[in-house]
Amino acid sequence: MPGLISTVRFAWAAAGFAIAAGVIATILVIGLTWRTLGAIEVALPRIGFDALRELNVMIRDVTVLEGTVELAKIAPTSPESTEKLQEANDFAYIRFFRQDFSPLYPVFPALPSVQERVRRVVEEIDAILAAGRPYDSAVLADIEQQLRAATQGLSQFYYTFGENTNRVLLRQQDVLSKFKRALTLFLGMLCTLGGTSVALLLNRIFVLKRIRHISTHDVLTGLPNRVWFGQVIAQMLQAKGARPLALLIVDLDRFKEVNDTFGHPVGDLLLKEAATRLRAAVRPQDYVVRLAGDEFAVIAPDLPTPAAAAGIAARIVSEFSGTVVLAGHHIRLSASSGVAVFPRDGATVEELLAHADLALYAAKRAGRSRFELFTPALSDELTGRMALESAIGRALREHEFTLVWQPQVNLSSNQVEAAEALIRWFDLEKQRWVPPGDFIPVAENGPLIREIDAFVIRGACLEGAAIHAALGQPLRISVNVSAGNLEREEFPDELTTILHATGFPARSLELEITEGMLLQNREVSGKVIRRLSEIGVQLAVDDFGTGYSNLGYLADLEVHRLKIDRSFVLDLSESSRKFAIITAIAQFAHSLGLETVAEGVETPRQLEGVISAGCNLAQGFLFSPPLGAGQLVEWCAKQAGQKLRRPPALRLIANEVVRTEPG
Amino acid sequence: MTCARAIFAAATLAALFSLNHAGAENTGTAAAATAEVALTVLSPSGERQLSVAEIESLGLRRVTTRSPWEAGTLTFEGVLLRDLLRHLGLERADSLTVTASDDYTQVIPNEDWANWPLLVATRQDGKPLTRRTQGPTRLVYPLSDHPELDSPVHKPRWVWAISSMEARFN
Q1: What number of H helices and E strands is found in chain A?
Q2: What is the 3-state secondary structure (H, E, C) of A289-326?
Q3: Nearest CA distance, A100 vs chain B (angstrom)
Q4: Cβ of A100 and B102 within 8 Å?
Q5: CA end-to-end span of chain B, whole Å?
Q6: How far apart are CA A177 and CA A559, in angstroms?
Q7: Those residues with Cβ within 8 angstroms of residue B133's Cβ, 6 or more apart along the chain or in another chain
Q8: B133, A132: Cβ pair inside 8 Å?
Q9: Residue A93: its chain B contacts at CB < 8 A?
Q10: Using omega within 30 degrees of 0 as the cis cutoff, is the peptide bond preceding A134 cis?
Q11: Paired residues of A217 in beta bridges
């Protein structure tokens, strides 16, 4: 861009210079022309020609007359000489008496005296002729003298004037040739300026085209950009009788991670690769646009039916699969897409964009590497989801979340061995309890789940420390951790910080994770789990038996407990098969050196079942519903049949019982 | 041309002698000029000699005009050049080469007599033209009536003391 700006500046500066130079050159040409014309338009040459001609005939007439006077002197008695003298005198009379030479006086001031002299001679000759032959030679000689003097006077001026005229003409010729050269030069300059102007104009057109291209295209991928998109799609939507048009928003999955892990140069390569693949996936008449960052749009016009958009989206998603090698790194390629179809899903660009975005959001939430078509239901759902997300954010800020505890009982010693911390949310704004099943899945799709986890772990450690103090003996506390945290390498360090801050012993903390979490992104989560083991934290596999049947992770990772999912316990009495499964899990866990926890034990029969199946621990309403920390301490004391060493006078615990639990 | 000049000279001589050298300016010559040959007209078909009387018989016209050669306003009488040429069957000539007795020569193009009433003057202020008054015939361009004739192009065509005219057809 700096190069471009300087080009534009240069073009303007040069254009200004060309205009100024053109004006100056024109003024100079006009001035020079006037000066030259003024110099040439001296009247002298024309007067000069007239004067020279008149002088010539005057000199001729006087010379002829002089000759005839000479003839009369030689032959004073010849009638022929008389006749010649008479004729010459007549012409001299015409010239010097009748013709008007006054226009010549300004250039030839001596002319009147010459005229006067010749006139006198003419009159004298008339007198001689009247007197008759023979003529007095003395008088004739005197006349001859007079005429010679007149001839001399005329000739002198004639030659002087002639040379002067010549000089003026030469000077004019000189001026003219200089003018010719100057004019050639100036016209050359003007032509050059004109040429330069045309060149600048062409350059400007080129630069403007380039600017337009740059302003409407993405430099990295060469694809049109958002500006271009805005212009073109608006035109396409305005076109009358247009067939359905699909707007697809395509977003690379986990692009930020690629950027963070491999650096921006690799990220840029990935974007280029994405642009290439997108172009390969769409139809020839479709447009691919880079909207921003890793977000692309595809405009698919002239669809036979709105449903045809799904085909294009499916091709795009399948094009983004597997790994690609960029700068030596193997990078998993995956993209999600949201589709909105004009006019069904929106009449304006804004609406289409918003709806395609919603569909994209849905695709991302549904697990990425897939596409979603926009539906009005999606819109409603997402609107509700977004409202919920903002409510969760508020709840975190306003401390609306609280913890409750559900005890786990050791089935062989019949002692309370542990308690699971569970989150509860009383929405102050709506004045109601929100079940965790409603807000946890929503939070899990965004960054909020980390904050919730942090709150739960920190709160559990704080309350756990208080409970320890109140009971005077360690009680293992169990906390649920979300998938997002297991994929963050900094999570173990954060956990250490919390443990230090709360003074809660790591060996008494158990983190509950699900099977699915262990299988996703195994490399990173495996590393995180090993770090957590190093810290001394125990691990339990939550909801065991409902996830994947791949048990390989149990060999690799240091897990302490399996929590058998409540669905196996729920109808234990009716199903001998479920009993067989629980027994098998318990035996298999024992052979691995793991303990088993039966969840959701609500009846004595279920308790009998899990005991005979060989489970080590059980939790459920049969023992206790989730309790506040203070209630838990009391409950534990009652179970142990012993008095509390000291009352649970902790502020934190007191707060727990302000609100009662639903159900 | 020399032939014409000789004839003219002879005619003048005869006139001069017949008048016995009257000293007055032009009284005697005027009377003689009416009978003598004043103008020789040459053409491809031959030669024609005209006296002032013959010329004037075509009908006199009067023209009052400025002159590029003389001061003041002059009044001439004479015949139109085009009438004279028509009389001689030469009005379609392309040009007329007019020569004076001092050998001054001009070529008058056809357009001049076709477009303007050029006068072959024989009299000035009622008096017949003599050699002293630029006669016996002179060509007059009526400048006052036709200012466009007041130009450096037409100025030299005021031939006086005409001795001959030669009609040319291209």
Answers
A1: 23, 16
A2: EEEECCEEEEEECCCCCCCHHHHHHHHHHHHCCCEEEE
A3: 5
A4: no
A5: 21
A6: 109
A7: A98, B26, B124, B127
A8: no
A9: 132
A10: yes
A11: A224
CA–CA distance, A518 with A383 (Å, rounded to integer): 31
Of all residues in chain A, the one with the smallest CA distance to B131 is A90
| Distance from C-alpha of A379 to C-alpha of A370, rounded to nearest angstrom | 18
For chain A, give the percent of residues with pLDDT over 70.
92
Range name among A1-5, A292-296, B26-30, B116-120 with the lowest pLDDT average:
B26-30
Given a cut of 60, is residue B1 above it in pLDDT?
no
- Identify the burial level of A167 via C-beta atoms within 10 angstroms of its C-beta, where 0-12 means exposed, 13-18 middle and 19 or more buried: exposed
Provide the token pair at B158. 């005021």
Nearest to A90 among B13, B69, B132 (CB): B132
Contact indicator for A595, A560 with CB cutoff of 8 Å: yes
Please tell me the distance from the alpha carbon of residue A155 to that of residue B80, in angstroms, as a whole number. 39
Q: What span, in angstroms and rounded, lies between the C-alpha atoms of B74 and B160?
A: 14
Query: Which segments of A428-488 are extended strands (E)?
Result: 432-434, 476-480
C-alpha span between A248 and A39 (Å, rounded):
80
Give A605's contacts (C-beta < 8 A, 6+ positions apart).
A572, A573
Number of neighbours of residue A323 by Cβ within 10 angstroms:
11
Residue type, A468: H
Amino acid at A658: V
Among A253, A233, A323, A343, which residue's Cα sits nearest to residue A295? A253
Q: Is the pTM of this model over 0.90?
A: no
Share of chain A above pLDDT 90, in %: 35
- How far apart, in whole angstroms, are the C-alpha atoms of residue A314 and residue A291? 20
d(CA A559, CA A593): 9
Is B70–A132 a contact, with Cβ atoms under 8 angstroms apart?
no
Q: Which of A61, A68, A100, A101 to mutate to test the interface with B (most CBs of B within 10 A)?
A: A100
Q: Which pair of tokens denotes residue A135?
A: 């003529």
Tell me the DSSP string of B134-147. T-S-EEE--TTT-G
Checking A8-14 for CB contacts under 8 A at 24+ apart, the result is: A8/A204, A8/A207, A8/A211, A11/A200, A11/A203, A11/A204, A11/A207, A14/A196, A14/A200
* Residues from chain A contacting residue B162 (CB–CB below 8 Å): none
